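Recall from the previous chapter that SMILES is a line notation for molecules. Here it describes flavin mononucleotide.
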Amino acid sequence: MSAAVLYTTKYGAAAKCAAILQEKAIKPLIVVNIKDNPHFDIQPYSKVILGASVYVERIQREMTSFCRRNEKQLLLKQIGLYICSGDKGRAGRGYLKLFGKEIHSHAVSRKLFGSEIYWHKMNMVEKLAMRVIKKSTASSSDLDMKAIQELAVEMGLLN
Ligand SMILES: Cc1cc2nc3c(=O)[nH]c(=O)nc-3n(C[C@H](O)[C@H](O)[C@H](O)COP(=O)(O)O)c2cc1C
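With both inputs in hand, we obtain:
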């Protein structure tokens, strides 16, 4: 059973999560940045994990376009979804629907992987927003390793 993780990221947290899943998987797991490969062919893969990060309540438009274009094919596969976001509550769970409602309902695993803040990579506006929202001016890591493990199990990457 071939599997692929397709992700989009702005600063790297969602990419890091894809790499962690790849390390955990006992069989080869292809990892693809959809911003670099918007027309990646998912046909050969029976399991597809989609991951993205949230900025001002939205995931990357490259991911939403990819999901729209490939929805029919995706709905024939085993799908896992993950989101990197600061919010791990109700709003966070709502972000999982940003891949598309049908894809969300079809997914066998849906997880919030938490967040990382890369202060040095952010622009002035983002730094200002972080100062106001998080009251912090530092990089931080708050990834949920348990959620990453659960997705790996639920997607059958470990057996
Ligand atoms: C300017 C800015 C806006 C953000 N907006 C949201 C948001 O609306 N909701 C949320 O839960 N997290 C938000 N976050 C947190 C990011 O989703 C989080 O840092 C994530 O790990 C980024 O992943 P990436 O490095 O893969 O892009 C925001 C972060 C920044 C810097």
